[in-house]
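The following block was generated as part of the benchmark described in Methods. Ligand: 2-acetamido-2-deoxy-beta-D-glucopyranose.
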Amino acid sequence: MRPMSGEEYIHLYIVFLIILSNDVSCTHQASSGGDKLLLVLLDGLRYDLFNADMPNLKQIGIDGVKANMTIPPFPTISIPSTYTIATGLYTESHGVVNNNYYDLETGIILDYEHTCNASEWFDTGAEPIWVSANFSGLTSGTYMYPGGSVEIKGVRPNKDVANTEWRWYNLPFKKRIDDVVTWFRDDDLDLVLLYHAQLDTMLHDTGMESSETMDMISEIDDGLAYLLDELNEYNLLEDMNIIITSDHGHTTPGDVIRVWDCISENDVDFWIPLNGAVGYLNPKLEKREEVSKISKSKPMIILDVFTLISLAQAKRSKSLSRTKKTLSTGYETMSKI
Ligand SMILES: *[C@@H]1O[C@H](CO)[C@@H](O)[C@H](O)[C@H]1NC(C)=O
Ligand SMILES: *[C@@H]1O[C@H](CO)[C@@H](O)[C@H](O)[C@H]1NC(C)=O
Ligand SMILES: *[C@@H]1O[C@H](CO)[C@@H](O)[C@H](O)[C@H]1NC(C)=O
């Protein structure tokens, strides 16, 4: 059962990062034949991040059409937002409310990778664009795109590469581009969604200004030039529409409220910390009023029964120091290739 009902449960949403909106750049070329579409989703790329450092993306914006920004849905975390982009629906309508599958009744929480494989988390009645493509007799591929490797409405994309943690850290952007170009060239796919998450991880881990972040931005920007070259080389560019967008931005947290300084862990029977914008707490039935009072006494934003509060810094540092190692390993692997 999915915990969709706001009346039944009080969730406390924890703000970890205040997410700003994202920029969208697209090239839209007049098509002379089959209209193919490639969506490149660069996780965490804030609208103003690339102004100085992404000359190729900037040029794509100049040659094509560029929106000033997009406004992500709430919560501004990756999977709800990428599913909004794929379905055109807000989170409450597509139902994919979190990066982690959870079930309040059974207490089951799945990690990111298992969540990506859980068909029931995505097959909610909403229709992602690759399923719509199929219903229109078109072919599609998803490359690590959340929801792209499970059956939805009885359909899977014609090609998919699953979003595994190993690939997340180890697959260079250029390799992903090679694969996607091959799908267009050899399999003649009509639609491909290419997802790239490393920048987001780097931003969470090292911040907005770090040299690691800047290197990642350069790598992505080089990759985009490579993408255009490859498409051009195989005469695919002319019939290709390319949308480059993001799911949310980032900002450096300011004042932090330590959740576990305000609320006792004993008063909560279910909580999901996230390495992202929002976490969820479900206070014990008899503690709801009390927890709600505490949250109201703090500078927190109250949305109906949903409450937004800042994530416990202690929890955050713990998970960051753990991921840092994994990340630098992943990054070294990438920069060597
Ligand atoms: C987009 O940005 C340009 C340049 O800053 C500005 O002139 C324009 O009004 C903006 N458009 C919207 C819809 O915000
Ligand atoms: C998810 O499925 C893919 C194949 O589609 C597999 O490679 C991957 O290991 C699975 N992940 C988990 C956590 O089971
Ligand atoms: C649509 O999906 C069904 C089920 O996966 C598949 O059999 C069919 O070949 C797909 N259609 C196209 C055009 O690829």
